[in-house]
Amino acid sequence: MHRGNFSRTLFLLVVIGLFVYGLVHLLILRFEKGDVYPRYSSFRSDPLGTKAFYEGLRLLPGIEAARNVEPLQKVSGLSEATLFLFGLQETRFFSLQQQSVKAVDQAALAGGRIVISFVPMRPSSFPPSKESCPAPQDDGEEGNNEAEDLHGKDDVHLTKRWGLELVPSAKGDTEASLNLSEEKLPPSLTWHGTLAFEPQDPEWQVIYARAGKAVIIERPYGKGSIVLSSDSFFLSNEAMKSKRYPQLLSWLCGPHRKIVFDETHLGVSRSPGVATLLRKYGLAPFFISLIVLALLAIWKQAARLVPVYEAEERVSVDPGKDAFTGFVNLLRRNISPDHILSACLEEWKRSFTHGRQNLSALLPRIQEMIVADRARPKRARDPVQVYRKISALGRRR
Questions:
Q1: Rounded to 5 degrees, what angle do the CA atoms 242, 172, 178 make?
Q2: Interval 70-106: pLDDT, tens
Q3: 34-130+147-270 — its CATH code?
Q4: What is the value of pTM for the model shown?
Q5: CB-based burial of residue 188 (10 Å sphere; 0-12 exposed, 13-18 middle, 19+ buried)?
Q6: I need a labelling partner for 27 at 20 to 30 A (CA). Which of 114, 119, 208, 353 fits?
């Protein structure tokens, strides 16, 4: 019985282990493919990711490529690096958090290179600029609340800060042409999307234009520089296979040897969960021990760890026995068959013959019958038959 419980428990544990293994293997496959991450993330290996560009930079000697999943204000060394923000949504550009903008500004002013590329979009999805939002009304607080909900109280409008405007363009899937006499850059690029730039600051320089509108622009910013691209397709894994522009990619990296791929603007950030805290404080062996103890407790309930005592198996109850039967069994253990009639006679004399002459007269006759029976050979003796004759004699009296 206990072996059966142990076999069932072992089978259940094996099934649970196989299920957990399959689930973990499935999650590993999903994360290796990267389709759980946003578009143009350096973690994605499918056509919509930028992992090929990231891994290619890591293979180059002297180049240090790294991913950033921490808030930008907590990252050090950006003033000596090129910061990539690929696949940025246009709505995020209109309202970035003040701390992130401050970190990007300080990095560019101190000598860093900031490269921002946008997600291709349709004209119908083009977001309104902050200037097109209704102005706050003086006769109530409802207009102020709506404006704060749209852009955030502490958000920064980068179009004003950097001196440019984002405008839609009706044409799509055309080529962007080089606007400079720079021979190191490709003369034309395959372009997707309909976003374009209108520089308001003369320091902006148009690098590529499509249909007469700027799509890649650059400007010096302090000791560093800022590059904006209205499309991210040429950075994707698909483009690295079919439409690769190595000269443009090298130009985007700039003179720095440290390249940082930011993931926080895509919503990929590191949050200290339970597993992170376990690794940080070295508590993994403790929790593994608790799991082992729990499994041992389950095993102990299912099967005994020590053999069962034989006495426990032999304990049985014999139903149907009463006090008289127990007394008979006790007599059989203590009085031999040769002396049973003598013992009965002694008990009869003490109990029934006192003061009763009619019964006392039977005593010699009974004694004769007992002596006669004992005089016979042992095999011929029959105490039961003699007892019946004595009983019949008493009833006749």
A1: 65
A2: 888 888 899 999 999 999 988 877 767 788 888 998 9
A3: 3.40.50
A4: 0.59
A5: middle
A6: 119
